[in-house]
Design brief:
The complex is a heterodimer of chains A (about 220) and B (about 450). Chain A has about 220 residues and is an alpha/beta fold. Chain A has helices spanning about 10-20, 35-40, 60-70, 85-90, 105-120, 150-165, 170-180, 190-205; strands spanning about 1-5, 25-30, 45-50, 75-80, 95-100, 125-130, 130-135, 140-145, 145-150, 170, 210-215, 220. In chain A, strands 2-1-3-4-5 form a 5-stranded parallel sheet, with helices on both faces. Chain A has a 4-stranded antiparallel sheet with strand order 6-7-8-9, with helices on one face. The chains are: A alpha/beta (about 220), B alpha+beta (about 450).
């Protein structure tokens, strides 16, 4: 899987590169619009992560131009501006998703996977974690043939943890994923813990959940 | 009391005082004028009689009438009398005019009398000519009444003219007050149109107010731009640190202690990021950078918000009561912003609630207006603190790390953007109620 990171802030593109490479993605980097345009046309990327504020051109123009040229890569627009119009224009121009800075790399990765599922229709939309089957398409969880009734938030939480299995997800990462769209005045809340507690209770009624680990003082991890 | 009313009152009182003074002086004046007139007549008459006397006619008069003479007209209002003076000590020196009650045929009447001594045939005589003055009092009261009516008429007319003139004169001032001094939600709504006036002071006032409004608007603009720029510029460094922390946490071979420290740093960074996001959001709303193109039903909105955070209620064993009596279509709104506003309000109701408390949410039409009420059974707010709850970075529970103090300012900004009025009612230890009145009349 090939990814082009178009971002003029080198430290930022470097961190993205490190993270995505660890997910076994091949990363290429462009620091300005010109070199990005060249690379997009010369290579075939699965993803283009496009910053809008490029030094030599507006990222939206690059997006427009690429789509016109029939480039089939999935574009994710990254911007610090987070202006509503940018988002609308970006999506209108054929961007596959939009993510506002500062964003979590885990969040970026999960968005990329969602696009993959949408675009290519993955063979199986069901993720298995031990005895549990998570059906992403229908948003249901089954255990040994029994359906488990989860709330929307509980399902999102389990799905996100499963997606990043074998890695610690901090409370902040989980909070941002679950409630990231709503800006609220509550940063010390332990609502994530409440959700995890409820989720564990529902899952453990069906089978053992030893794999659902609490990393004390940090967050949670799904081991598989 | 308006200036116009004060002007009118002043005019009325001052005119009334002038009239009062005039009415007091009037009788004296009238009397003087009348006396002067009578006196002149009396002197002229006495001259004529004395002339006659000198021609010798007195001999006939005096002889006939036993050395004295008295004559009066039918109504006894005028008389002429001549007496010989027997006692020289009683004699007047020269002409004398006085008021005296004169008895004519037993009838006593008030007269104005002129007395003149004269010598005739070696005998001193006194000439008295009298004119009745009982009619003068009558005259006085007639004139007084006439003047009173006339003056009242004049006052009334001048009062109306004064009022009309004051209104005309003060029109520019009233315009300044109504267009520039009434409260506006933000300097963006200032009205800089000059108010035309031929009065120098009003022009000066208007110009100065315009200058001050311009300054205020500029200051606001600079502040908003500053917040917006700073927030933008801070996003990138925060992104870098955030992503770096994520990568370090994911390396996997860290000690527990380090992992905890890193996750704490991430939390702190997230707090900073949220503060900046909130400030940016507020400044963008204030700069009208959000579209208002959505339509959403009030109940639909509340249900969506509750679905998002309802599970938090269980943590504190809070019971939620929904009294969704009436619905209301919120048109030309920004759905995301309204969602943020409601989430913060309900989250507050949860956060400041007591364990096992309750939250009542009403959607209903009251006094012709649609309103959403969110009532909690929480810790409440002291009366003196209520006004400050919408101020940025103001936290009432200073010992409790319960947020960054931008939740309610955000609520207020979003409400203002949608012209939603917020009323807060709170009793300490009993709870707080937020009432949102939507701009709507049934």
């Amino acid at each position: 899987m090939n990814v082009l990171i178009v971002e003029d802030e080198r430290s930022l593109s470097h961190e993205m590169e490190i993270y995505l490479s660890r997910q076994n993605l091949n990363c290429d980097v462009a620091f300005n619009g010109k070199s990005a345009s060249d690379k997009i046309h010369a290579n075939s990327y699965d993803f283009v992560l496009l910053d809008l504020g490029l030094p030599d051109m507006n990222g939206l123009d690059l997006l427009r131009e690429s789509k016109k040229a029939g480039i089939e890569s999935a574009f994710i627009v990254l911007t610090a501006r987070s202006e509503v119009e940018d988002k609308i224009t970006g999506l209108d121009l054929g961007a596959d998703d939009y993510i506002a800075k500062p964003f979590s790399l885990a969040e970026l990765h999960s968005r990329m996977q969602a696009i993959l599922r949408r675009k290519h229709g993955l063979k199986s939309n069901v993720m298995s974690i031990h005895d549990f089957d998570i059906d992403i398409q229908n948003r249901t969880v089954h255990c040994k043939g029994n359906s488990i009734n989860l709330t929307k938030k509980e399902f999102d939480l389990l799905h996100y943890l499963a997606l990043h299995k074998n890695r610690v997800l901090t409370r902040i990462q989980l909070t941002e994923h679950i409630w990231g769209d709503v800006l609220e005045d509550d940063y010390e809340s332990n609502y994530i813990d409440v959700h995890v507690k409820n989720l564990r209770k529902k899952l453990s009624a069906q089978s053992s959940v030893d794999w659902f680990e609490t990393v004390r003082g940090v967050g949670y991890r799904v081991n598989a | 009391m308006t200036i116009q009313v004060k002007f009118a009152l002043y005019n009325a009182v001052s005119k009334a005082l002038i009239i009062l003074a005039f009415m007091t002086l009037l009788p004296i004046l009238v009397e003087r004028i009348v006396y002067e007139h009578i006196d002149k007549r009396l002197v002229a008459r006495s001259e004529r009689i004395l002339l006659t006397v000198k021609r010798g006619s007195i001999a006939d008069i005096v002889r006939e009438q036993d050395c004295s003479f008295e004559s009066y007209n039918i109504l006894k209002e005028e008389f002429v009398a001549i007496y010989p003076i027997t006692d020289p000590l009683k004699m007047n020196n020269g002409t004398q005019i006085r008021n005296e009650t004169w008895s004519i045929e037993g009838e006593k009447l008030q007269h104005r009398i002129i007395s003149r001594p004269f010598l005739y045939d070696n005998q001193m005589y006194e000439l008295n000519i009298g004119e009745g003055i009982s009619t003068i009092d009558e005259l006085k009261s007639i004139i007084q009444r006439f003047l009173l009516v006339m003056m009242l008429g004049v006052i009334l007319i001048s009062l109306f003219i004064d009022l009309a003139f004051a209104r005309l004169l003060l029109k520019p001032l009233n315009s300044i007050i109504s267009t520039k001094l009434l409260p506006v939600p933000s300097p963006a709504y200032f009205n800089f149109t000059p108010i035309p006036s031929s009065t120098a002071e009003f022009n000066q006032l208007d110009n100065r107010i315009n200058e001050m409004m311009h300054k205020l608007k500029d200051t606001f603009q600079i502040e908003k731009e500053f917040i917006s720029n700073v927030s933008h510029e801070l996003q990138t460094p925060i992104s870098i640190i955030q992503n770096r922390l994520e990568n370090i946490i994911n390396e996997g071979n860290l000690s527990d202690e380090l992992l905890i420290k890193l996750s704490d740093s991430q939390r702190t960074l997230n707090r900073m990021s949220r503060i900046i996001k909130a400030l940016l959001l507020i400044s963008k709303i204030e700069n009208d950078q959000y579209l208002k193109q959505d339509t959403i039903g009030a109940i639909e909105l509340m249900d969506e918000v509750l679905e998002e955070i309802e599970e938090r209620l269980t943590e504190k064993n809070i019971t939620l009561h929904k009294y969704f009596y009436d619905d209301y279509n919120i048109i030309e709104c920004n759905r995301t912003l309204l969602f943020t506003m409601m989430t913060n309000l309900i989250n507050n109701a949860i956060k400041y609630n007591k364990d096992g408390g309750s939250i009542d949410i009403y959607t209903r039409v009251k006094d012709g207006r649609f309103q959403i009420e969110i009532k909690d059974s929480g810790i409440g707010i002291e009366k003196q603190d209520i006004n400050g709850i919408f101020d940025r970075f103001k936290r009432l529970n200073k010992n409790k790390a319960d947020g960054y103090g931008l939740g309610l300012p955000l609520v207020k900004t979003i409400a203002g953007f949608h012209k939603i009025e917020i009323i807060v009612d709170s009793t300490p230890n009993e709870g707080t109620e937020f009432i949102l009145i939507l701009d709507f009349r049934c």
